[in-house]
Amino acid sequence: MTTLRLSTVALMLAATAAPAFAQDADSCTTVRMSNPGWTDITATNGVAQTLLQALGYQAEISTLSVPVGYEALKNGQTDLFLGNWMPAQQKFRDDLDAAGGIEELVQNLEGAKFTLAVNKPGDEAGVSDFADLDARKGAFEGKIFGIEPGAPANQSIQAMIDADDFGLGDWTLVESGEQAMLAQVGRNASAGTPTVFLAWAPHPMNEAIDITYLSGGDEQFGPDYGGATVHTLARSEWVQNCPNAAKLFSQLVFDIPMENQLMGMILNDGTDPADAASAWLAQNPQVLDDWLAGVTTTQGDPAKEAVLAAIGG
């Protein structure tokens, strides 16, 4: 599997004691990121935004579909992307590798998964594997609910339909945004309607909806129910020009319970992502020790003290 080379510039600066204003170029005060409209990336971007603002930076977050977001990163229109799901987005990584100029800063999440699932009525209809679906096409109305158009997972579903895998050649992919898709799944569950849809973790859907992840989709989504890792990518030029900010992102890692909590606050409570991040950090300040080790504010002051002051910790 072709992979981008790991960033070394930011990591080599771990022992550098010079303040950030002597390291980061003036252009680094605004950090440009993208969000494909997924709540998990909304949550992690919210954490990044909260930390950046406390350190004297500004986060500029653009909502871009997955293909457009990768093009923006490749073309220098954004600096970072915290949502490189692998192996689902391998073709985008291959494209970036071929173009050059992009580095992986860190694997920011492990234990993720991403594949098709059914709601409780779907499970009660006897579906637990991809191969169970077509015999029950009528109950599911021949529909598979995906996420936003252009998403790699949708492309995997459509490729499966086009190839008539599992006899699904006459099924239809229904594309919509994440929240609209989940709202439909919830309504169908309440109505007792079996539904097959794209599901993943981390996400509060795993607590809000009775979900059965389907086995049998290793070829389409990968083993272990589409087991995945998520990676942070950055422009090499940005890493070189902004070593203090890059060091922060090279140390910014998450876990499934944390993201579930943040996403629940955003989706279920309507909390602004940055506010959710501030509230979570105030309750879990211990994570700052590793995230901010060797990082300073833009004025060269200790990072942890600045963040604690900003979140009221």
UniProtKB/TrEMBL annotation:
Keywords of this entry: Signal
Pfam family, one: OpuAC
InterPro entries: ABC_choline_sub-bd, ABC_Gly_betaine_transp_sub-bd
Range of residues in the leader sequence: 1-22
Ranges where the ABC-type glycine betaine transport system substrate-binding domain occurs: 30-283
GO cellular component: ATP-binding cassette (ABC) transporter complex; periplasmic space
GO molecular function annotation: choline binding; transmembrane transporter activity
Gene Ontology biological-process annotations: choline transport
NCBIfam families in UniProt: ABC_choline_bnd
Protein name per UniProt: Glycine betaine/proline transport system substrate-binding protein
